[in-house]
Amino acid sequence: MQLDTKGLTNFIDEEAIWKTVRATENPEAARVRGILDKAKEAKGLTLEETGCLLQVDDPELNEAVFETARTVKQTIYGNRMVLFAPLYITNECGNRCVYCGFKADNTELVRRTLTPEEIRQEVTVLENLGHKRLLLVYGEHPRFGADWIAETVRTVYDTVSEKSGEIRRVNINCAPLDVAGFRTLHEVGIGTYQCFQETYHTETYAALHPSGHKKHFLWRLYALHRAMEAGIDDVGMGALLGLYDHRFDILAMLTHAAELEKHFGVGPHTISFPRLEPALNADIAYNPPHPITNEQFKRLVAVLRLAVPYTGLILSTREGKTMRRELLDLGVSQLSAGSRTYPGAYADPNYDRPDVQQFCVGDNRSLEEVIQEIVHHGYIPSWCTACYRLGRTGEHFMELAKKGFIQEFCHPNSLLTFKEYLHDYAGNDTRAVGLPLVQREVDNFPAKRRDLVVSRLDRIEQGERDLYL
Ligand code: SAM
Ligand code: SF4
Description:
Blueprint: H1 14-23, H2 29-39, H3 47-54, H4 59-77, E1 80-90, H5 116-129, E2 133-138, H6 146-158, E3 169-173, H7 179-187, E4 193-198, H8 202-208, H9 217-221, H10 223-229, E5 235-239, H11 246-264, E6 270-272, H12 283-286, H13 294-307, E7 312-315, H14 321-330, E8 334-336, H15 367-376, E9 380-382, H16 386-389, H17 394-402, H18 405-424, H19 428-443, H20 447-461
Parallel strand pairs: 1-2, 1-8, 1-9, 2-3, 3-4, 4-5, 5-6, 6-7, 7-8
Helix pairs in contact: 1-11, 2-4, 3-11, 3-13, 4-13, 6-7, 13-14, 15-19, 18-19, 18-20
The chain binds S-adenosylmethionine and iron/sulfur cluster (SF4).
Keywords: 4Fe-4S, Iron, Iron-sulfur, Metal-binding, S-adenosyl-L-methionine
GO molecular function, one term: metal ion binding
Cofactor: [4Fe-4S] cluster
């Protein structure tokens, strides 16, 4: 693959972003309250407004930011929470990202790439647990091009078990490809393509990515452009927090989002905000150069919810359970659960292998434990994949979302998928708390909608599967 960056320019104006960060330090209370009033309209925020909210220091104002984020989150997304699991396919990698356990010069890491049979074994374990949405994760190695990645996706989709069903949406987190490569992934039916820029600060980026394809900042910066050009409507961006000043990276990431919107009429489908976690032989991951406190982290998630109200916010199991619980209300819309971060981990009877994994997981609970907690918290777990299969993606999805579609369709669909889960996979304890939640939600629908949903729920009870509106 040729890494052609001819004619590409860095649309992140570092000086301008720093100027915005400095100009918005210590914002006045009246200014913050004015921005929060605007944020309630769910039309997004400018970079300047986002900079102000990121730098609120006063506890009372901070709580006002959280309260506004909770309201916007509840209005747009209601009480549903999409669940997924990552599936690591290979930890072989030719890059040397200094923070990652998979880096090429980590000679202590045991390398492993799953065979098709091993992929089937992992998928079967995940299906038996009730998963319907997976995020496939790959190191970047010259041996593994787009055709090989596409083949692994096909293997996942083809692993269908009579007892436990099938994976309905495969998202991908792999190194940037060229347009032809992305077209190959599009043709095999991937959902979202994710690529995190890690940091948008070029000098820091260069120091942390000393060799391999990933050292080419512009090649990575335009990865999502190429994916969209290839027809992949849903793309996900992210920044790895702890590498550089989070205020800079968040404003830069939002500039990236705006750039996509300008070119393609729609911004990213999702945003991720991983924090650095300890990883084998990666000192920087134990001592992040720009650590971000829990308070700053929570505020950042709340502010993202206000800045890009219709973009999905993804939270991984890098965070511990207490933080994850708090972030549910503040803005997160997708949650990974029961995650394991090395190839072959789900079928591994001796799970817990620091010598193979990418980084340490902060929330080790099983999928079912996470489900019980979020149900107690009043959330409906969702595995819905209707939009993607009905072509409601990209710009089309965003237009619908802005018209209240999430509450009208995603909410009932979450109930249908949760009902399937309760029927096919849940233990008695989960059923005992889940079924009353489904009933309560159904009771709250207006009569016409209620009849439609009840008839679908009945059909699930009779054995039909994969129903959606
Ligand atoms: N290899 C591909 C790449 O780098 O784009 C995709 C997979 S990589 C395993 C997925 C993401 O893991 C990276 O983009 C990075 O943000 C994150 N990551 C790497 N090391 C990490 C660490 N020590 N703690 C938390 N996240 C980490
Ligand atoms: Fe390889 Fe990705 Fe890890 Fe970098 S972050 S070393 S590219 S797996």
